[in-house]
Amino acid sequence: MAVSIDLFLGILLPVIVMALHYTVQPHRFDIFEGYGCQASVWWSLPAIFAVSWWPVLLSLIAAVYGIIAIKFFLSRRLQFQTLLRSSKSGLDNRHYVRLMALASVDILLGLPLTAFAVSQTIIKRQPYESWAVVHYDWSRVDQYPARQIFNSASNTAAIVLPRWHTPLLSIIFFLFFGVSIDSINEYCRWIDWLKSKMPSRFRRPREPQPTFVPKLGSTVARPIGGDWKEPSTLEESVVTIDESHNQDQVEHRQSNVVEGVTVAVRVDRQIV
C-alpha cells in the first residue's frame, strides 16, 4: 500500500497534472527578461482546477494528517515507540520528530504560497472561449520585457515566490537531516572509502590508535585452617624428617599442613 501511494504521488499525479495543464496552455512557454522560462497558462476558471488548486489540496491533506500524527504522538508516546519498532521502517523518535517538523514547515510555507497563487489566478482570470481559441498558434514562444512583467509587487511575488518554494524546502530538509549524527557518520564513511581509493602518496598516514595492554598481577591467598607453609618450605620439611620417626607421626605432621595454594589473579588494563 505504501509503495502504491508513493508511486501515485511521485509519478502518476504529476502526469495527470501535466495532461490537465495542456487544456489551459495557450502556447509552448513564456520567456521573461532577466528571469527565464515560465510555463504559459490561460488564466481562467478551468485553470484553477487544472493547475492551481493541486498544491492547495495536497497541503490541506498534509495538514490534516500532520495534526493527527502530532496528536497521536503526544497522547500515546509509549505506544508510538512500540509502533515504530514493530513497523520495521528504521525510524525512531528523533527521526519521526524531524519528519513532523519538516512537514509542519512545509505546510506553514507551502499553504500560504499556494493560496496566494490561487488568489492571483482568480484575479487575473479571463473567459475560456473554446479549445481552438486557447490553442491557436500553440507552437509560438512569447517574450516579455522585465518592465512589463515585474511592474508591480503582486506580479513579482506571484512569479518569484512559487519558484523559490522548492529550493527553500530543500535547504530546510538538509538542515533537518543532513547535519545529524547519522548523516555525519555516513559522510565520514564515504570520505574514508574515497581516501582508500586514492594513491598512497596522497593519503595521510594513519595515526596509531590507543590499544589496551593487559597488565597482569597475582596474589596468593592463604587458606583457612591448618598450618601454612610455602611450597618450597613444605618440601624441605618433609624431606628432612628423620626416617627413624614413626610413620604415623610423619603422616600426622603432614596432615596438619594444607597442601594447597590458592592463586587469585587480578587483571589490570592500562591504555598506552
UniProtKB/TrEMBL annotation:
Signal peptide: none
Cross-referenced InterPro entries: GPCR_Pheromne_A_rcpt, GPCR_STE3
Topological category with respect to the lipid bilayer: Multi-pass membrane protein
One of the GO BP terms on file: pheromone-dependent signal transduction involved in conjugation with cellular fusion
Residue ranges of the TM segments: 7-24, 53-74, 95-118, 168-188
Subcellular location: Membrane
Protein name: Pheromone a factor receptor
Naturally occurring in which organism (per UniProt): Kwoniella bestiolae CBS 10118
